[in-house]
């Protein structure tokens, strides 16, 4: 096999997502769609109640939900920006949940575990960063 053929073969391998990444992308897309569907009514109700705190929290939740959909599309196409956007979404979420977990008298372990899963997924995606274009 000459160098040109080998280079083309390597490029095809470089830009093809793994099966695990495809599963993560599908799950991320589903989460984004479900959260968006539930977030729109929550935002409308918050506007009706005129509670500024509830409006802000609902808007942030809706933005994150749409972000999951956008990131899923980027990961599927193996775009580097999607890894960066996912990291930007996960890191603040992790800090907020950790702060709430340690400062609250009630310990909700399921939220803490879900953030742990997001961190593991982030490290997995970061380990594949060189394969993204």
Structural topology:
Elements: H1 3-14, H2 19-49, H3 52-76, H4 80-103, H5 109-127
Helix pairs in contact: 2-3, 3-4, 4-5
What brief labels describe this structure?
133 residues, mainly alpha, 5 helices, 0% strand, globular, transmembrane helix, membrane
Number of helices: 5
Number of domains: 1
What percent of residues adopt helix (DSSP H or I)? over 70%
Which class of secondary structure composition applies to the elements? mainly alpha
C-alpha Rg (nearest Å): 18 Å
Largest sheet: none
Mean pLDDT: 83
Kindly, what is the distance between the CA atoms of the first and last residues, rounded to a whole number of angstroms? 25 Å
Count the strands? 0
Strand content: under 5%
Shape: globular
H/E element sequence: HHHHH
Low-pLDDT stretches: none
Transmembrane segments: 20-44, 50-71, 83-103, 109-129
Keywords: Membrane, Transmembrane, Transmembrane helix
Brief rundown of the structure:
Helices cover 83% and strands 0% of the residues. The chain has 133 residues and is an all-alpha fold. It has one domain.
Structural write-up:
The chain crosses the membrane at residues 20-44, 50-71, 83-103, 109-129. Keywords: Membrane, Transmembrane, Transmembrane helix. The chain is mainly α. The protein has one domain. Helices cover 83% and strands 0% of the residues. α2 runs antiparallel to α3 (52-76), α3 packs antiparallel against α4 and α4 runs antiparallel to α5. The protein is globular. The mean pLDDT is 83.
């Amino acid at each position: 096999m000459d160098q040109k053929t080998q280079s083309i073969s390597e490029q095809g391998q470089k830009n093809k997502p793994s099966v695990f990444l495809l599963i993560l992308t599908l799950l991320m897309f589903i989460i984004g769609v479900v959260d968006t569907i539930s977030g729109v009514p929550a935002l409308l109700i918050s506007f009706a109640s005129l509670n500024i705190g509830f409006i802000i929290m609902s808007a942030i939740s809706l933005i994150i939900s749409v972000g999951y959909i956008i990131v899923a599309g980027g990961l599927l196409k193996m775009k580097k920006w999607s890894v960066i956007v996912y990291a930007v979404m996960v890191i603040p979420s992790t800090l907020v949940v950790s702060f709430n977990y340690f400062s609250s008298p009630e310990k909700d372990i399921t939220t803490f575990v879900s953030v742990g899963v997001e961190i593991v997924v982030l490290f997995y995606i970061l380990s594949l960063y060189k394969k993204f274009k």
